[in-house]
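Q: Predict the assembly, please.
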Amino acid sequence: MIDSVAVTDAPPVVRRKKARRKLTFDRVSFFVVFLGLPLAIFLLFVVWPFVQAFYYSLTDWSGFTPDMSFIGLRNYRTLLKDDIFMTAFWNNILLAVVVPLVTVVLSFVLATMVTVGGTTHGAARGIRNSNFYRVISFFPYTIPAIIIGILWSQMFDPSAGLLNGVLTKLGFDQFASFPWLGDTRTAMPASMFVIIWGFVGFYMVLFVAAIKGIPSDYYDAIRLDGAGRIRTAYSITIPLIRDNIQTAYIYLGILALDAFVYMQALNPGGGPDNSTLVMPQRLLNTAFSKGQFGLASAMGVVLALATLTFAAIVFAVNWLTGGREQKVKR
Amino acid sequence: MTTTTQPTPTSPGQKTVTAVSHVVLSLWTILIIVPLLWTLMSSFKTSKEIFASPFTLPAQWNFDNYVSAWTTAGIGRYFANTVIVVGCALVIVMVLGAMCAYVLARFTFFGSRLIYYLMLAGLTFPVFLAIVPLFFVLQNIGLLNTLPGLIITYVAFALPFTVFFLFPFFRALPDEIAEAAEIDGAGEWRKFFQVMLPMAKPGMASVAIFNFLGLWNQFLLPVALNTNRDNYVLSQGMASFASQAGYNVDFGRLFAAVVITVVPVLIVYAIFQRQLQGSVTAGTMK
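A: Predicted assembly structure:
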């Protein structure tokens, strides 16, 4: 015991060192299969392509000939000047701003209604039928994304869709054959709605679970102080499920920066005036239709950087708004 | 928005809030259920009926659309492909993922943390970045446009999630039992398969369900790496079917195909509903 405060970031699990054991056949074969096999697959099919993509993004490779010359950052400069790609880029950014925010707020409100909405007296109890609401809301999460897209593209259908049918029945005749996905003003909001529809239920269930994990004493205490619902949500619920909100935000952000499946189902061509075109659609087109693999890889790198930046911003905001102290208190 | 400052259970403000909650939640539920029911209803209609009005019930309730979707549109074939690919990939990724998570969680060796972080990085990077080189990796080993190629890719991309999620389960298992097994003379292999793996069952079940949903819904990987029509999986088959339906105008068949795709997942969900909702908690509270 020379240095009793050896710095390690591993969790404080007391475990005996097992490294000094003999290398028997059993042990060697165990490590080769248990670690070597999964790792080999992971390295070959995940890590290696990622590494290659960074290199390809610096070349003018077409993919079909072995010729490839190193051109530095020229692909990235091409992208900056490519109006269609920049449209797709900003569409993704818009998605990443709106979709997580609306989804998290909506699922938080619904989760609050399901759990603490029932009574402001005593322990956090659900309202009647809370289980029913939860099970139904979770439904869309189990439906394949492509099906959600197809289903809603039928709902939005100008003449045969249910949405315009209902609106016309209600007397809004101007919607008789309104093309929700074919109008530059509505294509993007309608697409966002579809993504949000698919995810609110999942995050609602997640928040319900997190809220139920909060000790009821906290709620009793703040109610004794006379706090109302909004105050309770703001001062107790949100701070205590902060980590869950952060996780939700990051997952939704990654999803919104992709959004490929939904957009492909709703508007395969990128929508009116490219108003719903997203980077992944442009990437696939550039790579497999135009054969510009170097340029497509550069798009992939931009997408990855956008994802990492988004995650960093979420972490930073959480940290700055008091996530720090929360960690210590808990 | 109504708020109440009086914590009495029967105050009028209280009742208002509860009523508002019920109204909002009911509206949301309707918004979920109505499109699904409408799809179900439309799947029995002929294209002519669908275009006539979105409201009227089908004149005849028969399964013509389903038969036609299953055979003529090739949904049956895509369905079989999907079952093969998802089934194989699920089994392989659960076994490999459990083994890898177990080694990383229970042994400390040079580079073990590096591997763990590498897995974490694999989880956050967008698949799109890898898709172009991946195409050529598969082409070089001759597995492009084949089901085995798709299976191994599914395994590779589901692996980080599986390892990451199972890691805490294996870490939390008590040392005493592992030691007892050792004293009884069990080698590493037996210790894992007969002692440790059975104890991690709850974690395995949750991860398996999430992997099933994720793989069944996978779209990008098959679209880019599996372009042979005979090998199409359900999600990409549906996408190409939907874009064709626009010209052939057989929407009844399209709706029937949608129902065929959704029903298996809804059944899995109905069976494992409790388990799934429970594991949402377990996964995020860690």
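Residues 1-19, 120-124, 326-330 of chain A have pLDDT under 50 and may be disordered. Chain A has one domain: 90-329.
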